[in-house]
Amino acid sequence: MKNNDNHLRLFVYGTLKKGFWNFDRFCTRAIGIEPATTWGRLYQLPAGFPALEVPESSVLATGTDDPLADTRTQNAIELPEYGMARPEGDWDLVHGELMTFTNPGFDLPPIDRLEAFDPNGRCVYKRVLVAVKTNDLIRPVWLYTMQPPENPRLKRIFSAWNGEKLIEM
């Protein structure tokens, strides 16, 4: 389904969610926030925040340093027929929030900086476009993904991150 508006949509699953510590600094200009899901693996990092890994087969596009071009890309994507079919492998349905922004040129660059996203260099997170489901609607939406560090003590989170630091017993 193509979208003809100029709104940028962002799936958040950690500190940018409403009620968490980065929401007030970066997301109060969102005109819509709704529960959403996508396929991936969510991990608790030792620093206390989560990282999401998504299947390569789910990536529809990779973010650039031009928020307006990325919005056009998002709005031009027609989702594959499989939509939100479970990808092959050990992937979970990850719960988060879909945020809608009306001024991507103003709203996205600070979030890109927070996530250390640099499409022209080495970066902690990549911003990628994937299929996200809200209620019964499936849309192409940007999110930040990370390859989890090779760490046997890294904790996998099933479903949703609640902001609590996981304590190993």
TrEMBL record:
Which residues belong to any copy of the Gamma-glutamylcyclotransferase AIG2-like domain?
A: 10-57, 82-156
Q: Name one Pfam family in it.
A: GGACT
The source's superkingdom equals: Bacteria
UniProt-listed InterPro entries:
AIG2-like_dom (IPR009288), GGCT-like (IPR013024), GGCT-like_sf (IPR036568)
Q: Spell out the protein name for this chain.
A: Gamma-glutamylcyclotransferase
Please tell me the species this chain comes from: Desulfatitalea alkaliphila
